[in-house]
Amino acid sequence: MRFFAxxxxxxxxxxxxxxxxxxxxEVGQALYPGGRGxxxxxxxxxxxxLGLALWQGEGQVALGxxxxxxxxxxxxxxxxxxxxxxxxxxxxxxxxxxxPLSEALGLVYRAQEGILLQLPWARLLGVERRPGQIxxxxxxxxxxxxxxxxxxxxxxxxxGAGLSQEAQGLRLTLxxxxxxxxxxxxxxxxxxxxxxxxxxxxxxxxxGHGGKDPGISVGGILEKDLTLDLARRVAARLPExxxxxxxxxxxxxxxxLRLAQAxxxxxxxxxxxxxxxxxxxxxxxxxxLAQNAExxxxxxPAEQAALLKVYAGDPRRLAEALxxxxxxxxxxxxxxxxxxxxxxxxxxxVLLEIGVERxxxxxxxxxxxxxxxxxxxxxxxx
Length: 382
Fold this sequence. Notes:
There is one protein chain. Helix 7 runs antiparallel to helix 8. Helix 3 links the parallel strand 6 and strand 7 (87-90). It is globular and about 75 Å long. The chain has 3 domains: 16-118, no CATH class; 122-192; 203-381, Aminopeptidase (3-Layer(aba) Sandwich). Helices cover 30% and strands 35% of the residues. It is α/β, with parallel strands linked by helices. It has a 6-stranded mixed β-sheet, sandwiched between helices.
């Protein structure tokens, strides 16, 4: 019995020991932080070996392949990192769990004597040339680099006019470099030269309740009337804002969510008893774009961040702007986990619940409306 116990201990120790890690043409080590049997690899080696995009922001790291991204929060304690499936920061190096990364980006993961991480070469399926645009379709997501007057599609192969095969991938030689390059998904890469009309962010103010649903009643005043009044006051200060309902009408949650899908910022307004002001944020994000927006906004240049906020956002940044605006009124916001519906909103969506005592007078309502409007302006323009 003691022999088997000793053998089990030795087997477990060997299973957690560092193993060789082959990533594309790069060689490193797979580590097992915290002894939990979860293999980790160093992010720069992974990005270099497979041609992945790499972003690092405050408290997060993300790797990307075309339209796919996988973000990890960063933790310095190795046992906590492995338990949470988070990124592990060891000094100046950052390690991420290999299997979740492989599943998210479609990488090949094999574990034997060591660990093999590969990305099969992509095949060019077609090229469509249009005025001011070239669309290329590949058998999987690819990353592309603009180099001089050409574009290199990493780990891709194919044939066609202006295309040449290189060791790193497929190069497309052009007369002039594209002004934009983006990944709409499905293995597509679009190059464009036309002037870009920058889309403007949209703000959806969602006055809670309405119609058959009055909400709470305080001193004969209904919540549905207070939220609509407040939403109108905020909208008057934000020309880009619209309301989920214009009057005393019943708007189902499904209809509100459909409107929220196209909004850069969503603030759902509600009223509660007393003077507390509560701010509810989503526990998680359900769409891939929303899941990666927080990591991308943390490191993207100001111009790119402004463009990203049109389509996806970070509720925490909006919450910080709201907390700052309300603190100027001497009001402390209490944060909490919001309703599940918030998780399906790609933009910066929050629910703001305001104590009726804060809305008793016309002056008080205008102050609250200005604070909300100022916070939205700050978030979109920071």
